[in-house]
Amino acid sequence: MNELLKSLTEAVGVSGEEKEVRLLIRDLIADHVDEWHVDAMGNLLALKKGTGASDLRVLVDAHMDEVGLMVTEFDSNGTIRFSNVGGFDDRALLGKVVQVGPKKITGIIGARPIHLTTSSQRNSVVKADAMRIDIGAKTKDAASAQLKIGDKAAFVTEYEELGPTAIGKAFDDRAGCAALIELLRVEPYPFDLHAVFSVQEEVGLRGAMTAAYAVKPDAALVLECTPAYDLPNKDDVSPSVALGKGPSIYVMDRTAIQDPRLVSHITATAAENDIPFQIRRPGGGGTNTATIQRSRAGVPTATIAVPGRYAHTPAMMINLSDYANVVKLAEATLRSLAPNIIQHSS
Ligand SMILES: [Zn+2]
Predict the structure, then answer these.
(1) CA 139 / ligand 1 centre spacing (Å)
(2) What is the C-alpha to C-alpha distance for residues 84 and 72, in angstroms, rounded to an integer?
(3) Within 10 Å of residue 125's Cβ, how many Cβ atoms?
(4) Which pLDDT score, from 0 to 100, does residue 235 have?
């Protein structure tokens, strides 16, 4: 059992309220870094001093937050209206168990039972605004005595391993956080490594913005968990990325074009070290690369990701060797990152 992935994915950290995850990570890295601090946004920044061989400043980012829900209103019957924190397909919500607020009160995302629906209702998607979180409270006062508007709700999913795969919630991006923790637990790099466990990625790549400004890196690497879409499907013969085929390397998404020199360096490093990799099909999505690369006067940035099925739902699936290979590839990429790779000669 990968205890790191288990503890990180079972922790709760809906965007804007990442403290539980941050405290967990702080304790996991404290003995392996030279300094750490928490900035005004809530990002956890840690410095692992280098050997002194290179004066590059390198930032490695993974976001701590996960998608979830927020309490917006209490109905007279004691059920709770909510809005989404981060992007969801409404169809993924119905019937799911959530933990709400700081006391982690258990609730169910409910709607009319199938017995009482008409066939036309069953053939249409129930929108999130027609759903309520039910914590068993009978009145508005009973519900609002336990929770307040603005409280967050997160999914409840126990981490499990099934052969080569792992199932759990929030692999996006706790798999990246776990990988970054592993990168901090090994021998120093030639340069100072600035680890950023960032907040609020899922609501607009926000935490990485201030962290990148503060770190002022020469180059950056983002560790992510990217949606895999690889089940047999007659209509779509070009899957985004597949489970078990290795780390996924971004070239372009909706928000950024990855630095081509870094992408070449990553793929060459993978080839040299016999690490499998797959280029993620360009388009869709976005990562902290977008904000980091545009911070200050610009930062060459690239993204390496663990492929994960069913992103932004209560239960995701990853392949454990993909995860291990992301750690291996990221470490090899960093150890061989020389200043000339990111210098423009003309
Ligand atoms: Zn993510």
Answers:
(1) 37
(2) 10
(3) 10
(4) 66
Class of domain 3-66+169-342: alpha beta
CA distance 173 to 307: 11
What's the gap in Å between 63 CA and the centre of ligand 1? 7
Which of 17, 18, 182, 201 does the annotation list as catalytic?
Answer: 201
The contacts of residue 268 (CB under 8 Å, 6+ apart) are none
∠ CA 133-155-231 to the nearest 5 degrees?
Answer: 120
Question: Does the annotation count 224 as an active-site position?
Answer: no
Is the whole-model pTM more than 0.85?
Answer: yes
Stretch 338-346: mean pLDDT: 85
- Quick check: 14 and 152 in contact, CB under 8 A? yes
Share of the chain above pLDDT 70, in %: 97
CB distance 170 to 12 below 8 Å: no
- Rounded to the nearest 10°, the torsion over CA 244, 245, 247, 249 is -140
- Report the alpha-carbon distance of residue 86 to residue 65 in Å, rounded: 10
Residue for token digits 């545009």?
Answer: 294
Q: Please state, as a whole number, how many other Cβ atoms lie within 10 Å of the Cβ of residue 346.
A: 2
Question: At 210, is the secondary structure helix, strand, or coil?
Answer: helix
CATH code reported for the domain at 71-155: 2.40.30.40
Contacts of 230 (CB under 8 A, 6+ apart): 239, 240, 241, 242, 243, 307, 309
Enter the tokens of residue 220: 């950056």
Distance 287 CA to ligand 1 centre (A): 6
Distance 305 CA to ligand 1 centre (A): 9
Task: Kindly report, as residue ranges, where domains of CATH 3.40.630.10 are found in the chain.
Answer: 3-66+169-342
